[in-house]
Structures are given as structure tokens and as C-alpha cells.
Specification:
alpha+beta; Alpha-Beta Plaits; five-stranded mixed beta sheet; 4 helices; globular
């Protein structure tokens, strides 16, 4: 288990509780994170098409107590980490990846942010195109 200094944990928690940011149209998700207890997926541009970096991350995570296994997709830059949630927390893994230059939490979007952005885009589409046409059809 990774023991964090209180100031590091405080900084990490404040970064994770930041308000949802909107993903702009056409913006590429360069850093992404999604997790459920025991399974976390991160996407990072430093992994994309970079087998050496993937090997380095695998070695780092293999040495981390509580990590069960890892899978990599070099095409997307995705790292899938299976871990024991009773031994390791999401914040431990993020800190480890950030401290080693493999992830940037300040540039990351979460699954909730992606869904919120897609919902906002859908609502904007309906409110600007379909709803006015429906109103005109009933006039």
C-alpha cells in the first residue's frame, strides 16, 4: 500500500474534486480517467504508440502492492489497472502515475464529464434545431 504524505493527499483530493469542465467541440481527450473499485482506466498521451513507456508503467505497477494486473492499448494510450481496493485506493494509483510523469490530473476528464458534455451538446442541438421546428409545426 502506498502511504501518502498529508500535504500530497490534500493536493490530490483537491484536484479530484474540481468542478466539471466542459469538453469543447472537437477537443481531443488527451487525459481521461474512469474507475470503479478494483478497476481503473486511464488514458494518457505519453502511452499512445509508446511501447517503452507502457513497459515502464507496467514495471512500476507490477512493483506496487495491491495491483493485480495491467493491460495496455497503445493505439489509444489507455492503461487498464486491476487492483485490490482494500489494499490500494484510486488516489494512490493516480499519485503514482502523476509523480512519475505518466498522467496529468489537471488536464484529465472523467467519465462523468464526458457524459455531461455529451448531454449538453444533445440538449443544445435539440433546442436549436428540432424544438423550434416542432413549435412552428404546431402554429
Amino acid at each position: 500500500m502506498i502511504i501518502m504524505r498529508p500535504e500530497v493527499e490534500s493536493k490530490l483530493n483537491s484536484q479530484m474534486i474540481q468542478p466539471l469542465r466542459t469538453i469543447e467541440k472537437g477537443e481531443q481527450m488527451s487525459y481521461y480517467m474512469h474507475d470503479v473499485p478494483g478497476r481503473m482506466r486511464v488514458k494518457s498521451p505519453v502511452v499512445k504508440k509508446n511501447p517503452k513507456t507502457a513497459d515502464d508503467i507496467k514495471s512500476l505497477l507490477d512493483l506496487t502492492q495491491g495491483v493485480k494486473s495491467t493491460q495496455f492499448n497503445l493505439t489509444t494510450g489507455s492503461v487498464l489497472i486491476y487492483y485490490h481496493p482494500d489494499q490500494l485506493q484510486r488516489s494512490d494509483l493516480i499519485e503514482l502515475l502523476c509523480d512519475n510523469g505518466y498522467f496529468d490530473m489537471s488536464k484529465a476528464v472523467t467519465n462523468d464529464q464526458v457524459i455531461k458534455s455529451a448531454a449538453e451538446g444533445t440538449m443544445k442541438f435539440f433546442s436549436q434545431s428540432i424544438i423550434p421546428d416542432l413549435v412552428l409545426a404546431f402554429i
